[in-house]
Amino acid sequence: MRVLVTGGAGFIGSHVTAALTADGHDVVCLDCLHPAAHGKDAAPDPRLIVADVRDRDAVESAMRGVDAVVHQAAMVGMGADLDDMPEYVSCNDLGTAVLLAAMARVRIRRFVLASSMVVYGEGAYTCPRHGGVRPTPRTTDDLAAGRFELRCPVCGSELAPALVGEGARLEPRSVYAATKLAQEHLASAWARESGAAAIALRYHNVYGPGMPRDTPYAGVAAIFRSSLERGEPPRVFEDGAQRRDFIHVTDVARANVAALAAADAWVGLRPFNIASGEPRTVGEMASVLAAGFGGPAPVVTGEFRVGDVRHVAASADRARRGLHFVAEVPFDAGMAELATASLRS
To answer: Catalytic residue at 203?
Structure first.
């Protein structure tokens, strides 16, 4: 199959490209080499078309002979401030709209979208008395007093985190999160009107070799690793007990291969959590990463950011059943690798 990978020169996209090629696909990449993702380390690749996904003519030209599109191109992370909002919306949502419109014109019927767990906002929670509930938002006073856990809106009891499934309520809490949910809505509309198949892969916390360093757009694992390289301890916010699901980038790449194979099994959009299914705390991640690097040990600061998600970890059951995908890289081994792996400058 001939596959167009947008963002194919990026951190995740380059691993997806390699996995698709190893699976026997003919891959062409389109990437604008945005400096927030590539810095000075972008390397030439004969399969790479250097163009912006918002460029209608370039996108349609790249689709010649293509059977499927795997859409990785996006601005990622929380950004620096709200001044980033127009660029996020333009890159992520306008870019996706241009891409899908071109796919409709040339009648491509398979689409795999890199979505994100950020579409959920907070994860799932249970109250010992009232079962599954939506938590009461944390206040600045609570956070300043070190009351980090969420509370039941009915009785005020401390809630226990649970695994979030794909059918959970979607409540994006940042500009980036809002653009990822908009991408899913656009893909769904395209799939319904085209009689086509779209798969949204809701990546959880992706890490591994080739992550960008020292940028507001990098993930927390890369930020901690950069601190260690400077001889500084990773600074862990709150009490370090925030739960996340960390998944290695090679597993994410395998999930894209699996999704492409499954993409003609239905019409419309289907979302899948792409996660290990084994949540860890941010503090635990920082400790394992620091030990692999050789120190210094992380510092739990008690600092906080209003609006940060406390816990979000995934059920991986649907991906196992629907895509026959199970993550393979163990957490300890993956973090030990990241401790010494090359990062993008």
So the answer is: no
